[in-house]
Amino acid sequence: MRTGAGVTIDFEVFFHTTYAGMRARAIVLCGHWYDAEDAVAEAYTQAFVRWDKLSQYESPEGWVFRVMQQRLWKSARRQARESPTLDVPVPPHASPEQVAEVHEVLRALAALPRRQRIVMGLHSQGTPNEEIATALSVSEATVRTYLFRAREKLRGLLERTPASDAGEALVPSSSGSALLRLPADPVATGVRDATQWLKEAAELDQDARDAMYAWVKATGAARAKRRRRVPRW
After folding, report:
1. Cα distance between residue 48 and residue 81, in whole Å
2. Taking the model in full, what pTM does it have?
3. Along the chain (233 residues), what's the average pLDDT of each consecutive run of 10 residues?
């Protein structure tokens, strides 16, 4: 990641700055605590191995986010057969109503067909339809269809009324480098709110963050060492 002056930062700073949001988004996308942790750990490990080059990118966070998605897609078949893991952390100051809200959103997302859930999760996180289409290898028209159907079902499950003149909401882009103006759709807002609660919980869970960083660093260092040993002809 680069500062405004074009100065790179080290991997540890990058990890600690972006980890909470990355973990929250992974949980919302797949609904499975362990799959989310696995995908996030793998994405950061790959980033660690490539950090000399990756740190020069405009958005290393966007790169990690895409790798995390790819890891989740690989475990999608198993996810489809399992129930969501709703025992997820929320901030300790959260009220019972707020905890129930997060679980309600995760249950509703889990009730969607897999691709509708993925599209809704990515859309609510500011990912453009074009990028969603590329990630899923479908057309943008198909993405719009998935999004429409997901919204309709979620409105019923979450008892949200359709958006009318609700205005707009500023939403971080999937790369984390900009704010996007999106319609203040009650369904997408509910998903974003749940993601924010999960992010706040991750920010406070320093033990989990430090444990993952230690694992990523050790695993990444071992991989980098093996790569250096491979002869290049």
Report:
1. 32
2. 0.80
3. 57 96 91 87 97 92 93 70 60 78 86 89 88 90 94 86 47 48 70 88 90 96 82 51
